[in-house]
Design a protein that fits this description.
By secondary structure, this protein is α+β, with helices and mostly antiparallel strands. The protein folds into 4 domains: 45 residues, no CATH class; 56 residues, Dna Ligase, domain 1, CATH 3.30.1490; 145 residues, 2-Layer Sandwich (D-amino Acid Aminotransferase, Chain A, domain 1); 38 residues, no CATH class. It is 34% helix and 19% strand. It has 12 helices and 13 strands. A 7-stranded mixed sheet has the order 11-10-7-8-9-12-13. Strands 3-6-4-5 form a 4-stranded antiparallel sheet. A hairpin with a 2-residue loop joins strand 10 and strand 11. Helix 9 runs antiparallel to helix 10. The radius of gyration is 20 Å and the shape is globular. The two termini are 29 Å apart.
């Protein structure tokens, strides 16, 4: 992984893939926690859901910084998330559940966005469908999709840490470039009061503990509407710096925000994004302006290995996995950790 050679990392361990061997994954974590005398377990991506499934047994050995799995399931599911937001009286686009292809095909030509109820990135998203051939045939009650009214405006992302309904860290940022249809690779910090208020209200109503992220559309001055929730860590955490550790460990400190508004990026992934931007002269100029004015979030002169070696090895590994499993490089990044709402017995 990226930080394997970091001076900040004392030990590295390989664990079984959580979405293929969930019981073995939890058992491996328990062994590591006990042998290394771990005080706090903080998940970093979609393995959060599997950690939450094993939360009861893991908490016998250390603190586990995640919410209960049923709360995470409700927020991870794009339909039940929208229902929750509407119940709280916060802005959210009209969202309906689709359980068969015919329901989706009836929306062709409509001003809607179609996407799986459980998904990440935008790898399967269909914006304003124009042909029935775009509609997948496997939409079903077991694999539902949602149809969400299309909202016009800039995309705004947020990344937060919360303890029992109180924010201890919060960042708003624009994500101008992504790795294909994947996650953001450029981060332009913003101070969006409307998004901050929205997140504060939602987290308070949920009494949420853990890491939580949202995607918004800015529909006008001082107005945002939430299009989805990621109840886990996302790339926005890169904006905080070393002080972020306090947000996890000290629930009563003031809310931490990014220390500056300097643009950040994941350099190798931005080079990948540049391949798409370079198709037009205007696109290339926009990409070059972002690339040349952003700082790599991985490289540090005092801890150079992750930036000079780690992230490039990581990129190579995901490219190899994509070839090996015949999936996209973006899909390869979460292939062994993603969770799509299925019931998993941990006992």
């Amino acid at each position: 992984h990226v930080c394997r050679g970091s001076r900040a990392v004392v030990r590295n361990f390989r664990v079984p893939p959580p979405n293929r061997q969930p019981r073995q994954f939890i058992a491996a974590l328990q062994r590591i926690i006990r042998r290394q005398r771990v005080d706090v377990l903080i998940p970093t991506c979609e393995e959060t859901f599997f950690v939450a499934m094993g939360r009861r047994s893991l908490r016998e050995s250390c603190a586990v910084f995640t919410a209960e799995i049923e709360q995470l399931r409700r927020l991870h599911n794009k339909f039940t998330f929208a229902q929750t937001v509407r119940r709280y009286g916060l802005p959210v686009p009209s969202t309906r559940l689709l359980t068969n292809p015919a329901e989706a095909r009836s929306l062709v030509g409509k001003n809607v966005v179609l996407k799986p109820a459980y998904s990440r990135f935008t790898t399967q998203t269909i914006i304003r469908p124009r042909a029935t051939s775009q509609i997948p045939a496997n939409i079903s009650p077991a694999r539902p999709w949602v149809a969400q009214d299309f909202e016009t405006g800039p995309l705004l992302c947020t990344s937060s840490v919360a303890h029992q309904g109180r924010l201890t860290a919060h960042a708003d940022y624009a994500a101008e470039f992504s790795a294909g249809a994947g996650g953001a690779v450029s981060f332009a910090p913003a101070r969006n009061a409307a998004a901050h208020r929205w997140v504060t209200e939602f987290v308070t109503r949920e009494q949420f503990t853990g890491q939580i992220s949202f995607d918004f559309i800015e529909t006008g001055p001082g107005r945002v509407t939430a299009i989805e929730c990621n109840p886990r860590a996302t790339s926005g955490l890169h904006l905080f710096g070393p002080a972020l550790a306090n947000a996890y460990l000290h629930p009563n400190l003031p809310t931490l925000e990014p220390p500056d508004l300097a643009a950040k990026m994941v350099a190798p992934a931005m080079l990948w994004a540049g391949l798409g931007a370079a198709r037009t002269r205007r696109g290339f100029r926009r990409w070059w302006n972002c690339f040349s004015h952003s700082r790599d979030v991985i490289f540090s002169p005092t801890d150079p290995a992750p930036g000079l070696v780690g992230q490039w090895l990581s990129l190579g590994y995901f490219l190899w996995q994509s070839v090996r499993h015949r999936i996209s490089p973006v899909a390869a990044t979460t292939d062994d950790i993603e969770w799509n709402g299925g019931v998993i017995k941990m006992q």
